[in-house]
Write a structure and sequence with these properties.
Blueprint lengths: L14 E4 L4 E4 L5 E7 L4 E8 L9 H15 L3 E3 L3 H10 L17
Parallel strand pairs: 4-5
Antiparallel strand pairs: 1-2, 2-3, 3-4
Length: about 110
């Protein structure tokens, strides 16, 4: 990752919530996380994450996921990790976000 303007470590990309498109995306709109709302808006189903080849390896997919999970948590939503990146890579690497994941087990929501 590139250093920020002050040379203080990696630059954190700005992620924008595009509510009308149901996406979290980089400012240039080239990398994004697509979601669908379910259960009357109480559940965010993350269906796709895309990072173009030219931007891979910079941690953008992870930043997109953190933005989506943070948004869901702050709006008392659960997340369904339909996207394979989220379920197979992001959540295993970031187990603290599993508490936001949707569960059909009624006991887990008590």
């Amino acid at each position: 990752m590139a250093a920020n303007a002050r040379g203080e470590g990696p630059e954190v990309p700005k992620i924008v919530w595009n509510e009308s498109q149901k996406r979290f995306e980089t400012e240039d709109k080239k990398a994004y996380l697509q979601y669908e709302l379910r259960d009357g808006g109480k559940v965010m189903d993350i269906v796709h994450t895309f990072v173009p080849t030219s931007k891979r390896g910079l941690g953008l997919a992870s930043h997109l996921c953190v933005s989506a999970f943070t948004h869901a948590k702050s709006h008392s939503m659960s997340v369904i990790p339909t996207c394979s990146y989220v379920s197979d890579t992001f959540l295993p690497r970031n187990p603290s976000w599993k508490s936001v994941s949707y569960s059909m087990d009624p006991k887990s929501n008590i």
